[in-house]
Automatic annotation (TrEMBL):
Organism: candidate division TA06 bacterium SM23_40
Top-level taxonomic group: Bacteria
Keyword Lipoprotein listed: no
SUPFAM superfamilies: alpha-helical ferredoxin
Cellular compartments per GO CC: plasma membrane
Protein known as: Cysteine-rich domain-containing protein
Location of the Cysteine-rich domain: 78-169, 208-293
GO MF terms held by the record: 4 iron, 4 sulfur cluster binding; metal ion binding; oxidoreductase activity
Keywords: 4Fe-4S, Iron, Iron-sulfur, Metal-binding, Oxidoreductase
Amino acid sequence: LWSCLTCRACEGRCPAGVGFTEFMRLMRVESAARESAPVHTHGRVVLDMMEIQGWGLDQRRLDWIDDTLQTATEGEYLYFVGCAPYFDTIFEDLSISLTGAARDTVRLLNHLGIQPIVSNEERCCGHDPFWAGDVETFRELGRRNLDFIRSSGARRVVVSCPECYHMLKAVYPEQLGDLGVEVVHIFDLLVEAVREGRLEFSPTPRIVTYQDPCRLGRFSGVYEQPRELIRALPEVELVEMKETMENAICCGSSGWMNCTAANKAIQVERLRQAGASGAEHLITACPKCRIHLSCALRNDDTDVKIEMQDLLSLLAEALKEG
């Protein structure tokens, strides 16, 4: 029950099309109601952080915004950042900047003439409590986010985190009600801008491979957009891993509920596939993919030598100004 990654890989292979993932989630709801829960990783600090966000306390989640970025307090676009500001503190030992990708998202939006609303009123989207069977915490976080989004005056919510995107796009309307705004992934805006000639890039020579996040790929069907953006980068070669797109291997952990030898084996296998592709850089679009795979690389669980980077940071690095 608790070792399932809820990645939907099994559903794509099941000839009967059984919805195992939702079944597992509902079983977790029943288990949690009976006060039967797993041993959470990291001393449960991550899920505690998410629960505390539902208490209504004041937050300081905007320290990553510097003077080079243009944000607003009102307007058409609202950028839903996700838990990256908290992850940067909790996983400081990994030396990866997850708010760097958020910063680069705003930079790319600014390049398109968009000054998004970014606010301390945002809360965790509730993804992890939702998949851990903690309905009460999910609903409290969701209620606060709905109130915040509806009162912002924005008409479009831009999301970069795959899990936040799936929650706001699919789960909130189903479980909590209509947001009253359009939810768009940042990739859709960027692909549109590339096709219209409003977004151009300078050469950044390298060979890359792309890790499909489960919530962005199998859950949301976003496969081609990131690849189109990578192909728009001059002198960047995209090579695919052995298992990709619908068949991509999960990064090996989900919801901070398991970090066993089996999870590590999944991560090592994925890193070896990345190394075997001939890529110099492993590109992803998910904060958790970066956390889990960076942890496996740091712990020398594999002899693969490869650099990890968020796709949004790669795009911002190659951005042609002017």
